[in-house]
Amino acid sequence: MNAFDLTGKLAVVTGASRGIGRAMARALAEAGADVVGVSANLEESGSDVEKDVTAAGRSFEAIRADFADPAAVAALGRELAERTRPVDILVNNAGTIRRAPAADHPAADWDLVLQVNLTAQFALAQAVGAAMVRRGHGKVIFTASLLSFQGGITVPGYTAAKHGVAGLTKALANEWAGCGVNVNAIAPGYIATDNTQALQDDPARSAAILDRIPAARWGAAQDLAGATVFLASPASDYVHGIVLPVDGGWLGR
What we know:
By secondary structure, the chain is α/β, with parallel strands linked by helices. It has helices at 19-30, 48-55, 70-81, 107-135, 156-176, 197-200, 203-212, 225-232; strands at residues 10-14, 34-39, 60-64, 89-92, 138-143, 181-188, 243-246. Strands 3-2-1-4-5-6-7 form a 7-stranded parallel sheet, sandwiched between helices.
């Protein structure tokens, strides 16, 4: 048996329209899963992520949901939990970031980042995970961050939320592991996406970051593919509550 085979599984990937989410959706499809992509601005048809998934021979469904809207997240959770075809894999990847020095950080930015990156993550995991617990199987994968371990600079809300994601991963794993549901997280390092564009564009920060990474390069979204498939597959059936860094060696430095 191929322990990494996801044939016949249904995966939901939030924040799927671009960057890390798109790469995760593509990886899951290439391993055999059908994919429901969720994003605030995802096209109903013809999106890049849809093309990735269908090119792998799997089905794709697009759902628009604004993770800044608690009511929309609650509705999404109910809809996914009540589907005739159950969700086997939930990739809780949607997120946002706001940069400003802590002394001047707008309260609205703090509230937005905590809602999108933590509160919405729990609400969706709670709804879909409860259905997994009732069935006795399922995989939940959160996107954590290097800032689940460190403090960062000018991103207090993001850091607080990603620390929360790491704790939430462990808390849910403690409750659900005995019910056949695996809850884990991936902590991407410095990945070249829109979220890190400001850092890439700052010559001093970019040089300092590269100097710290043993792999000597920024990560690519595709670097998350293997970890995603592993945590979604039977290969990880005895893996619970971990935060897996995919960081080019940053945390080992």
